[in-house]
Amino acid sequence: MLRRFIYSREGVLSIIVLVMFFGVGVINPDFISLSNSVSIFNDTSILIMLVLGQMMVILTRCIDLSVAANVAFTGMVVAMVNQYFPELNMAILILLSLVIGAFLGAINGLFVWLLKVPSIVITLGTMSIYRGATFLLSDGAWVNSHQMSESFIALPRFEMLSMPVLAWMAIAAIIIVFWAMKYSVWGRNFYSAGGNPMAAFYAGVNVGKVQFYAFLVSGTLAGLCGYLWVSRFAVAYVDVANGFELQVVAACVIGGISIVGGVGTVVGCVIGALFIGVVNNALPIIGVSPFWQMAISGLVIIIAVIANASSDKDKARIILRKPSESIDSAQSH
User: Fold this and answer.
1) Has residue 323 got a pLDDT over 60?
2) What confidence category does residue 316 fall into, taking pLDDT thresholds of 50, 70 and 90?
3) Which residue among 149, 192, 230, 276 sits deepest, i.e. has the most Cβ atoms within 10 Å of its Cβ?
């Protein structure tokens, strides 16, 4: 089983991440310290949670470009509610962020499910709408740390077993989504709907409803991340997470989530997010310009897409072979 993982896409990516991690550690030994490792994971936690939701959307042959705008709008709402009602219980604020995020995600899902609008079109539109709504709501003003309650800011930073609550939230999300995607019928339907929509339809799977659920989950996680973002950085403004949707999609693609749907794993997308997290933390240490960081990230995405396309072609060739040839090929591997 270990050997199979090492030779898998996730295994190879894990090795690359570890090589980068310890390679930078040779230059700066503090980089591989336990405290910095926890810090890197904590820095990547919001990306991981957004990637888990995006993974479900991409598995169903869709894409959600509005996640970062969802984060900005939800973060602004809960920050302003906390500003005007500082005595409000944190559980209510977190629930509010989940509900708002779910509502914004449901809007995308309903357009895709009921009106058959291409996901890239509707989410590109709602991305602009949610950003504009954030500006209208705040009138372009910021909500800074002095206007936030102590409990609002402290929750993501509170440490349990030497790790911040934010990191534990990401771990909890990984475990829940992993179980749902691997062991529940509801989770397996995402693969069916994206892998072969026609076969899924004849098997009794409502593909449109599955896509709706994917956007609903993505929106809910984005709403939670909206609160976590503004509380962790102690500021809410219109351009929060601006462009972050590109990193979310990049992490999915790097982690082996097929852009044509139906293929990918929770482990893969988490490793993809950690890859970006390590790169973002490592490049400044070795003196790489922020502009080169963007170029390197783009290059990695292109390589990942080519690798995914090559993998899909190989699978297609195996399917098109004669049965005896396919068996011989499988035995040779």
Assistant:
1) no
2) very low
3) 230
Report yes or no: 10 and 271 within 8 Å, Cβ to Cβ: yes
| CA distances (Å), origin 86, targets 35, 153, 157, 166, 236 | 32, 11, 18, 21, 15
Tell me the pTM: 0.90
Q: Quick: pLDDT tens for 165-209.
A: 999 999 999 999 999 999 999 999 999 999 999 999 999 999 999
Are the C-beta atoms of residues 228 and 296 closer than 8 Å to each other? no
